[in-house]
């Protein structure tokens, strides 16, 4: 019986790899790059800041040589920016006690403080070389791309020309668009569908968890206490209980137990071995809609890289500001002063409340 199940799985793997589809109609083959949003371009800064990408990459190479953990922090920063109010650098803005910014919303409390400092440092270096012509949102997108490449992942061109937003999102808007790590696949599919991102985009972008660490045991403690989540591997469970002797322990652990500092496809291998850390991770392999996609990426790293690049470029163009919209910030954490007012407002709030695991987001 065991050999029969293994043979069936291998036949599925061969079929998915060869034809890029399953009987469920889920296409997983590589596709051409997504359309470039109006106002963005692959050559946007070629004439007025031709050394932009070299400046960013060379600096990040030094940063990562000293601390590779910063790569995951910069990648998450781009995710958290784009999924809330679009890729406008709003997550970078500071708020106040009376007007809290996106940074203070629970999903963003685990964003690395050093990631924000790195973005501002890159902005200063680029501004020194080219003047104030490159947006903080573009620098954030470039930093995420280089975080992927410099930790072993694919290199790729991204459209540039984003402008920085004048407002940040409210707590409720942030909660609504960054689902918690306790989310199942259905909740994640529904959440991303509001952004015109598909199930395949969900699985590909979740591969960002191939690098990085959790914020604390709270983000996955429900899978350990009071009893083991049955979808979790027994040995993996025992090791996590050593790291987290209680479900509110502040200890952290890696997201990919095989190659935690290398951007590769081992995250999907983890899922196939029931060693995904969050519910939002492991359920991608449990759910019949996403399991074949996980399998295809686990056995074909090139396919994962192609799909990740496609989905990153697509995500990186969510609700971008271009042309005369927004501004180019002189300081990534603050809106440029104006003659009329320097008050930074947030978008209109609503009364929606949502339970959230403190300091963590689901997929990104």
TrEMBL record:
Heme b binds at residue 209. Residues 1-18 form the signal peptide. Residues 39-336 form the Plant heme peroxidase family profile domain. Keywords: Calcium, Disulfide bond, Glycoprotein, Heme, Hydrogen peroxide, Iron, Metal-binding, Oxidoreductase, Peroxidase, Secreted, Signal. The active site is at residue 80. Ca(2+) 1 binds at residues 81, 84, 86, 88, 90, 102. InterPro entries: Haem_peroxidase, Haem_peroxidase_sf, Peroxidase_pln, Peroxidases_AS, Peroxidases_heam-ligand_BS, Secretory_peroxidase. Belongs to the peroxidase family. Classical plant (class III) peroxidase subfamily. Belongs to the peroxidase family. Ascorbate peroxidase subfamily. This is Peroxidase. It comes from Papaver nudicaule. The lineage of its organism: Eukaryota, Viridiplantae, Streptophyta, Embryophyta, Tracheophyta.
